[in-house]
């Protein structure tokens, strides 16, 4: 991955993470604030409910007390046969705006019932079981009606006339009108579940408008409150339609849960707030990422450009331009790196120059050594021959002619040898530029091998020529390539003094050709392979060490490549790729 | 009540008796003519005026005229009586409690009963309802003790054996009978022919509920499983009355009976199977204003008797 891309990713990730963390913190804070506000609003509604509940209870108590204080109530209480008062509860309830009113005799028998007139004579034992109704506040009661059951806020007072007694039990239904009297702030609503029968009845979950739709969603919460008899909190719905409900049990006289008050608080505002914050976070993150791109661009321009220049300069050094330098544009680490690079290349150039100088001296020394060695060999016979000629003239004049003849022949031969040695050095010194022409390498190989047939046969070496018929003509200097092949063949012959097999092989490459010359001699060590193409280096006891140097020079002039593979005891293969 | 047979006033002629009734006979022939009077005005559905017959066989009635307003609701009649706009009115069940005094009841001449539709085939449900109804509570409170509790078709005063037919409630037995029914058979629809009897129907519904029978009250026009009906006993002659009641309730014609034992058996046969559940024998009850003297205004069978009445001069 490019440094620039990596830097961009680091910037982007850092900014996104930072924005995300900030968004989480802000969202968490907002949620806590919302929940705190929700708790306050719920408490306010619950307090309002209790206040309204108490107010209505007191109102009902006053109304029932008013009925109990009437002369009619006293009259009913003392009459031995109250059957003629069957409809009095209707009139009294209507006058006093009560939903429920029953006049009950001391024995608990209903004298008159507003809510269920036909129940006259039925017993209301729960009234007789309580001894002190006069100080009793209003309470919740489940009240049976002809067609239904309702939940009512009831109060009971007694009319005592001597030994006679009459119970006045009146109340008002806890219905949607009651819910409507509770003013809930926007986003909140108040529901009432009337627990009038075993099991959850969806129709008994009401709000100010009547039965609540999708009431089944609240069933678990209602049932939880009924079971645990204490407040519970639950959330229904998802997303913006989610609503958190606080459910409070409403207990009756016997502490049984007769109703559940549910205060719902829409989470729409919170969801919208969170959505808004998320949107802002996304915008900030996107802006941050764009900023990261710009920053990373700028930073990489400042950091990577010098690095890139360094890389390019290093590439030039690798390509042989050891004098390559970079501009030192700053004094920071990058600038120090550039200065160090410049110092390095400067020292490389100096070292190269020193090395060249040393190699040149070494070459001259090697050349001198070789020349001395090569020239010393023919000079010694020359010196002996001349000394023989001098001694023969002085001591054996009669044999001088014969000695002179033999001596001059030897002198000529050694001089020819000296000439040949000088010629080789001269050839290496004045290697000409190749003259390219289209040459069929197979023909060239075949022709050269024919020249060596006799020599190979004398040396006990078998020849194997493997020519690729698909080989195409290549642009080479035929004379120089022939010289290369001859040098390689001669080397191979020298490597197989006890005979062996010489293999010459051609092969077509993609756009060029390959020439291989293999022998089955003793092979070369890796160190010998490394120095093989060094001028004047030889592994043989004779020779100038210029053969393979010439070969490498020719191949190099042809933009080709030469390599050697050798295995000790198995032989050596020279491989030349041209074209 | 001073108006009832008071000896403080003396009979005298003159005056118009203002009467209001709920019925609206289609013709004067159906309405009939009170003894000692002749029909002088007939306004169908509104009014009938009878004038004293100067040549009546028993002598001229004290009243000059009897002006009868037709088709007046029971409540309007009661209000008119209280306001002095009427002298004689019919009293319904609801008005009985408001006019505890000044009532003129006849002998029990109407039978209130529950009559089952033929489609209620299971006798157990019919018997369960018969045993569930608490007649005494209805009689004491709703009927203000008017009439008689009865399990017979004919009233005691006509047949003499009505007391033999049981009329007491037995809730335990009723519940046991209902328990033996399939749940689908534990529901009944009850229609009330006379809206004035709605309170009684409500109480029957409540009693049935205690027996675990679900009774729903439906409009009078509905084809109900059981109806709360009244029928008038037209005659004090047992065979004639029994046949008439049987016909009114859609029962089979009773067997001919020449003595009380056979008459009892005939009536028992009609009631077997609980197709009809007799509840009460009710009188016609009229209320009279304080200036009406010389009552009662009806005879034992509820027929008008205006010829013996006179009006005390009061504003």
Question: Can you give me a brief rundown of this structure?
Answer:
The complex is a heterodimer of chains A (about 575) and B (about 325). Chain A is of the alpha+beta class and about 575 residues long. Chain A has helices at about 5-70, 70-80, 90-95, 125-130, 175-180, 220-230, 270-320, 335-395, 400-430, 440-460, 480-495, 525-530, 545-555, and strands spanning about 100-105, 110-115, 140-145, 150-160, 165-175, 190-195, 205, 210, 230-235, 245-250, 255-265, 435-440, 460-465, 475, 500-510, 515-520, 560-565, 570-579.
Overall geometry of chain A comes to rod-shaped
In the sheet with the most strands of chain A, the strands line up as 8-7-6-11-10-9
Q: What is the CA-atom radius of gyration of chain B, in angstroms?
A: 21 Å
Oligomer: heterodimer
Question: What would you report as the Rg of chain A, rounded to the nearest angstrom?
Answer: 61 Å
Q: What structural class results from the helix and strand content of chain B?
A: alpha/beta
**Backbone structural class of chain A:** alpha+beta
Distance between the termini of chain B: 18 Å
Helix percent of chain B reads: 25-40%
Mean pLDDT of chain A: 85
Stretches of chain A where pLDDT falls below 50 for ≥5 residues?
A: none
Strand portion of chain B, in percent? 15-25%
Uncertain segments of chain B? 1-7
């Amino acid at each position: 991955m490019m440094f620039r891309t990596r830097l961009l990713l680091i910037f982007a990730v850092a900014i996104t993470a930072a924005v995300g963390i900030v968004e989480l913190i802000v969202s968490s804070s907002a949620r806590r604030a919302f929940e705190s506000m929700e708790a306050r609003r719920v408490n306010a509604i619950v307090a309002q409910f209790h206040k309204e509940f108490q107010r209505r209870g007191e109102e009902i108590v006053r109304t029932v007390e008013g009925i109990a204080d009437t002369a009619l109530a006293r009259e009913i209480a003392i009459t031995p046969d109250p059957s003629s008062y069957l409809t009095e509860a209707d009139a009294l309830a209507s006058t006093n705006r009560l939903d429920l009113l029953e006049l009950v005799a001391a024995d608990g028998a209903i004298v008159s019932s507003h809510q269920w007139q036909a129940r006259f004579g039925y017993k209301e034992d729960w009234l007789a079981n309580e001894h002190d109704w006069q100080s009793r506040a209003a309470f919740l009661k489940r009240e049976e009606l002809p067609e239904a059951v309702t939940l009512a806020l009831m109060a009971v007072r007694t009319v005592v006339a001597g030994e006679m007694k009459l119970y006045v039990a009146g109340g008002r239904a806890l219905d949607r009108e009651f819910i409507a009297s509770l003013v809930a702030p926007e986003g909140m609503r108040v529901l009432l579940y009337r627990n009038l029968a075993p099991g959850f009845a969806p129709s008994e979950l009401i709000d100010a408008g009547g039965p609540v739709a999708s009431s089944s969603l609240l069933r678990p919460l209602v049932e939880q409150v009924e079971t645990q008899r204490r407040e519970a909190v639950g959330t229904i719905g998802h997303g913006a339609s989610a609503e958190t409900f606080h459910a409070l049990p409403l207990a009756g006289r016997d502490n049984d849960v007769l109703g559940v008050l549910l205060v719902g608080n829409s989470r729409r505002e919170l969801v919208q707030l969170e959505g808004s914050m998320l949107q802002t976070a996304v915008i900030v993150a996107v802006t941050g990422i764009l900023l990261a791109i710009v920053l990373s661009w700028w930073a990489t321009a400042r950091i990577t450009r010098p690095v890139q220049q360094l890389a390019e300069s290093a590439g030039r050094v690798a390509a042989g331009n050891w004098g390559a330098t970079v501009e030192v544009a700053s004094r920071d680490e990058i600038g120090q790196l550039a200065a160090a690079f410049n110092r390095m290349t400067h020292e490389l150039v100096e070292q190269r120059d020193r090395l060249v100088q040393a190699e040149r001296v070494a070459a001259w020394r090697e050349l001198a050594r070789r020349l001395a060695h090569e020239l010393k060999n023919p000079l010694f016979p020359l010196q002996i021959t001349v000394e023989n000629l001098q001694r023969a003239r002085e001591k054996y004049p009669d044999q001088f002619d014969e000695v002179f003849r033999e001596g001059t022949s030897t002198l000529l031969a050694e001089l020819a040898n000296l000439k040949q040695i000088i010629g080789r050095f001269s050839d290496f010194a004045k290697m000409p530029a190749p003259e390219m022409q289209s040459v069929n390498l197979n023909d060239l190989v075949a022709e050269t091998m024919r020249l060596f047939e006799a020599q190979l046969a004398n040396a006990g070496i078998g020849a194997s020529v493997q020519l690729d018929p698909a080989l195409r003509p290549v642009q080479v200097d035929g004379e120089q390539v022939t010289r290369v092949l001859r040098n390689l063949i001669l080397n191979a012959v020298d490597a197989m003094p006890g005979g062996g097999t010489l293999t010459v092989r051609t092969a077509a490459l993609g756009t060029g050709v390959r020439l291989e010359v293999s022998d089955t001699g003793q092979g070369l060590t890796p160190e010998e392979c490394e120095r093989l193409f060094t001028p004047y280096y030889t592994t043989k006891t004779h020779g100038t060490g210029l053969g393979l140097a010439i070969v490498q020079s020719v191949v190099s002039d042809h933009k080709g490549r030469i390599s050697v593979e050798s295995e000790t005891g198995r032989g050596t293969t020279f491989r030349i790729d041209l074209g | 009540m001073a108006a009832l047979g008071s000896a403080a006033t003396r009979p005298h002629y003159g005056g118009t008796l203002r009467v209001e009734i709920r019925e609206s006979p289609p013709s004067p022939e159906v309405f009939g003519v009170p003894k000692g009077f002749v029909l002088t005005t007939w306004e169908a559905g509104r009014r009938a005026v009878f004038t004293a017959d100067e040549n009546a066989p028993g002598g001229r009635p004290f009243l000059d005229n009897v002006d009868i307003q037709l088709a007046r609701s029971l409540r309007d009649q009661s209000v008119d009586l209280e306001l002095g706009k009427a002298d004689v009115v019919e009293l319904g069940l609801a008005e009985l409690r408001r006019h505890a005094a000044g009532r003129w009841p006849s002998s029990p001449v109407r039978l209130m009963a529950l009559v089952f539709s033929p489609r209620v085939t299971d006798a157990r449900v019919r018997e369960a309802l018969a045993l569930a109804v608490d007649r005494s509570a209805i009689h004491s409170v709703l009927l203000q003790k008017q009439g008689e509790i009865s399990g017979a078709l004919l009233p005691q005063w006509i047949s003499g054996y009505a007391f033999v037919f049981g009329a007491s409630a037995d809730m335990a037995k009723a519940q046991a009978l209902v328990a033996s029914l399939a749940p689908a058979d534990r529901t009944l629809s009850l229609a009330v022919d006379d809206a004035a009897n709605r309170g009684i129907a409500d109480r029957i519904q409540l009693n049935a509920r205690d027996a675990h029978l679900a009774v729903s009250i439906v409009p009078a026009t509905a084809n109900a499983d059981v109806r709360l009906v009244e029928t008038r006993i037209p005659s004090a002659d047992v065979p004639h009355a029994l046949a008439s009641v049987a016909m009114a309730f859609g029962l089979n014609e009773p067997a001919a009976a020449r003595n009380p034992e056979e008459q009892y058996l005939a009536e028992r046969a009609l009631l077997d199977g609980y197709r009809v559940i007799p509840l009460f024998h009710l009188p016609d009850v009229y209320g009279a204003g304080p200036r009406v003297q010389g009552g009662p205004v009806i005879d034992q069978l509820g027929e008008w008797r205006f010829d013996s009445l006179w009006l005390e001069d009061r504003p």
